[in-house]
Amino acid sequence: MPHLEVNGQIITREELRLEAARLRQQAGASSENQSFFERELEIQSEAEQLLIDRALLEQEAARSGLEITEGEILQALSGARRSDGIAACRADIITSEARAEVKRRLAVDKLLERWCQGVKPPSPAAVRDYYTRNRDQFHAPERVRVSQIIRNVEDEHSRPTILEEIQEVHRLLRGGADFAQTADRHSDCRGNGGDLGYFPRGIMVEEFDAVVFAAPVGALTDVFSTRFGYHIAFIRDHRPEGLRSFEEVRAALENMLLRQKQDQEVGRRLNGLRARAVIRKVSTPS
Question: Which of 6, 37, 209, 239 is at 20 to 30 A from 248, Cα to Cα?
Fold first, then answer.
């Protein structure tokens, strides 16, 4: 496999191999209408283009002189450590390579943000027009919005105690206690007042669906059990199958159409960088 040079910057064979492996894993099984060889050629080409574009963006960000502060780098590294579940990592053992990679990524993010500054949000008429012309995209299944309190049962020995405790919580709710506050105090899945948002059948386990889809809006269910433990549910809303209203989807549509316009602007500018770039594929001995 050759390596690439983008305005003199080398993209190594190992970088190409790793990017191709990532795309291969992401793609999963190939299409029945596509041979293994055809798919491999497609993956190699896509890996090359992605790494070329990344190099062009990093080079343009460096030319633009975008300032990345030490605080921004440390914040990004801290977020990466938390997402890896290693919150105890110390900043002084972060490698110089990791810092450099984060700095390049932040610079590219700032470059894209600068490119998109002049992109205006879609007009209300454009948003409404998209909804009108694409109604089939907004068909929704039957959904409920539920808040819950759950007590997990880890072993059968603890079951009687946990049942007694959640029954006491149920008595508090029957007596007028606020559900959200009670959930944040007593549920094993705390936060957001136990609100699970809207979901259709099949997202939750069968036993859970059977109770919440049968209960009326505003109902507080009895204590019931699933394979995970004991639950109390409060039915906040129940929406039948059908077309989602414009008001329900307007905010998401506005964001989607704005992202499309931003993507077009980024694509236009990136095409300009590609047209001016000197890109060479260099064959080297294995």
Answer: 209
Cα distance between residue 216 and residue 193, in whole Å = 20
- φ and ψ of 255, to 5 deg: -65, -40
Q: Using alpha carbons, select from 209, 212, 203 the residue that is nearest to residue 233.
A: 212
DSSP letter for 45, please. H
CA pair distance 91, 93, nearest whole angstrom: 6
For the segment 34-77, what is each residue's pLDDT rounded down to a tens digit?
A: 687 888 999 999 999 999 999 999 999 999 988 898 889 888 88
Range of the domain at 198: 142-240
Nearest to 13 by CA among 29, 2, 28: 2
Q: Kind of pairing, strands 242-243 and 139-140?
A: antiparallel
DSSP state of 220: B
How many Cβ atoms sit within 10 Å of the Cβ of residue 169? 20
Please check whether residues 102 and 162 belong to one and the same domain: no
pTM, two decimal places? 0.67
